[in-house]
Amino acid sequence: MYLSRVQIDVNNRQKTKELTHLGAYHNWVEQSFPAEIAAHKRLRHLWRIDQLAGKTYLLVLSEEAPDLTKLGMFGVPHTAMTKSYDPFLAKIQEGQIMQFRLTANPTHAIPREGKSQPRIVPHITVDQQRQWLADRAEKHGFQLVQTTLAGASDSEAIDNFDIVSRDWPVLHKGKRNMKLSRVTFEGLLRVSQLDDFKQLLVTGIGREKAFGMGLMTVIPRG
What we know:
Layout: E1 2-7, H1 13-16, H2 22-31, H3 34-38, E2 46-52, E3 55-62, H4 68-71, E4 81-84, H5 86-91, E5 97-104, E6 107-110, E7 119-122, H6 126-136, E8 142-144, E9 146-147, E10 158-159, E11 161-167, E12 170-173, E13 176-179, E14 182-191, H7 194-203, E15 216-220
Antiparallel strand pairs: 1-3, 1-4, 2-3, 5-14, 5-15, 6-7, 8-14, 9-10, 11-14, 12-13
């Protein structure tokens, strides 16, 4: 696996004028793998947009390394870079505390009378979105680290993570314009099941993974 990053040249409107919807970003990511296109391979690439220290980045996780020239197409010159992700994955240990960042599309299914497929709708409130992540922690091999405030009982402990941004970016699908719920979480977790957690890191979580959702990255704490 490879983790790649480029700073998006947001101050150059002429260069980035095409980046008006999620599909344009998806196409950018796909075009960054010309060898896959030539071989008619459609590998999944997880990606997300990060806002860090006043700069905007495209982050991509992929099985093969991207073409840095293509990845830098809409980027600040000389900021496209890639590195192997496998050495980092190999060092993760069960019980380890990690700081995480996740951009996801929290949704739930509503059964429809007479229909075999449920209706998928986004969670709207902060509490619903927080609960969405908490409900998926065990399945994906981690526990959300809890904090107990001074003077409070253990039963009053709270999960140590926050929602740092929420928005509704546009996706052009055919002749329709859709808005997707995009939520970014940050906080602390503990690795509880190593194999499941590594699987989460390389395959993502939730829906709309082709459109910038589902990629979790972690940094060891301590």
